[in-house]
Structures are given as C-alpha cells and as structure tokens.
Amino acid sequence: MNSTERFSGLADIYAASRPSYPVEAIDFIVQACGLTKQSLVVDVGCGTGISTRLFEQRGFAVVGIEPNEDMRSAAIRDSIRVVGESDANASKYCSGTAENTGLANECADLVLCAQAFHWFDANKALAEFQRILKPGGHVVLIWNERNEVDDLTRGYGDLFRQIPETAKVEMRRGIAGEPLLQSTLFSNAARTNFAFSQRVDLSGLLGRAFSASYAPKEGASAEALRAGLTALFEQSQVDGFADLQYETSVFIAERKV
C-alpha cells in the first residue's frame, strides 16, 4: 500500500481523534517566519485540515494539498463548518503531492507539513518546496510524538510496539526532519520542541489509536489492542478522562535567496 492510500476510510476517525498542535508552537511559527495577513501558507499533506485550520482561523490564506480524496473531502467539510462556505478566509484544498503540488513557482510564503513529511520522498519534496516558495520563505515540519513520561502514554506506546509495522513508521518519523536540517536548498535550519497533551475519554483514546494507518483494523489483533487500551484507560482515568503526553517538534528552515 502506498502512502496516498494508507488513510483511505480513516478520514472521520482521524478528524475526530487526532490532537491539534500547541498554541505556543503556532505563535512561534508565525513569528519566526514573519507571516503577515498577506502571506500565503501551503499545507502539504494536509489530511483532514487539522493544521490548515489553525492558520485559517488566524486570518491567513491557506492552500491545503492532499492526494487522498477521503481526507481532502473531510478537510473541505470541516473548513466550511468552521468558517463558512462564503468566508473569504476559507482555505482552498487541491489534489496534489509533496513531490508535485501543481502550484506556481514562488507563490508561497510558508510551506507547512504537519504529521506528514515522513511519508514523502524527502529530497524530491524539498526541491518542490524550494520551487514554490518565495525567496526568503520558510519550510516548517511539525510532528506530535509521544512523550512517554507517564503510565498512560508509556503503556499506549508499549501496546503499539507489539504491532509489527509500528517500528517501520515511528522510527522513520523520529528522524524525518533531519533532511531539512541538512538540505543545501535552505538555511538557518533549526528544531524547537514544545510540550503538549491531549485530553481523551475512552472513546477518544480508542479513536486516537485506530486512526493510525498501521493499527490493525479487524480480527484478533484489533481486539487485543482495544482490550489493552481499555484496561490502560481504566487504570489512568480520573472522572472519565486522561491525558496523552506529546513532544511537539517544529523544524524551520528558510529558502535561500
């Protein structure tokens, strides 16, 4: 299965269950990239538009690029629900890939990839980002990654480490920002981390788990994961809620003039 197809059928659970990103991280990006109300943000691999809407709601023009039709349709639906179909600030969503966005040369002030860059061909994607960015524009890569400092988050990770495909995805995601830091197309590259948490009830915890493309969807493996998560939640919850802990990594680099 290629990366474009991995999330087919997962759009609704993804939109409902995935965490957002810390306000402090978005503030940091806006300031570090020198964004103004005239800036164009291109969110590549935007999925259901979780990150897209964070910039949309701040009044920036945003174009979301998403090759998966299910995910893109959910992004359009939720954008209309949040800002309204006729709102001038409503994001635009287009079919495209990180390696071939279909956008014009030097049109963007910021290229954003949230929870997505590890699925791309890094060198081809960075060349495409360099092409569509204005000189002095920025690339930002963001990931929420588990911070296993508590019993719930560590136990969640332990359950996922029993799934064979987890290592293939999570190990790659852990180093996926390095190509930007090393790229000769960009300068002033740096990584900044932010603490973040996601409050969930049992339904939210199960949704978060099964929104992962590498989670089992049926059969004994899926039932074992569901049972393990349910037991873990009951051990950790207070008044029906518990918190998953994350470290949000923000990689920023500037296109060379």
Q: Describe it for me?
A:
The chain has ten helices and seven strands. It is an alpha/beta fold. It has a domain at 11-148 and 166-197 and 247-255: Vaccinia Virus protein VP39 (Rossmann fold). It has a seven-stranded mixed beta sheet with strand order 3-2-1-4-5-7-6, sandwiched between helices. Helix 1 (11-17) crosses helix 9.
Strand content: 15-25%
Q: What is the element string, with H for helices and E for strands?
A: HHEHEHEEHEHHHEHHE
Predict the CATH topology of the domain at 11-148 and 166-197 and 247-255.
Rossmann fold
DSSP summary: helix tally: 10
- The strand line-up of the biggest sheet is 3-2-1-4-5-7-6
Mean pLDDT: 93
- The proportion of residues forming helix, as a percent range, comes to 25-40%
- Structure class: alpha/beta
What are the low-pLDDT stretches, counting only 5+ consecutive residues below 50? none
- The top-level CATH class of the domain at 11-148 and 166-197 and 247-255 is Alpha Beta
Main sheet characteristics? 7 strands, mixed
* N-end to C-end Cα span: 38 Å
Number of strands: 7
* Shape estimate: globular
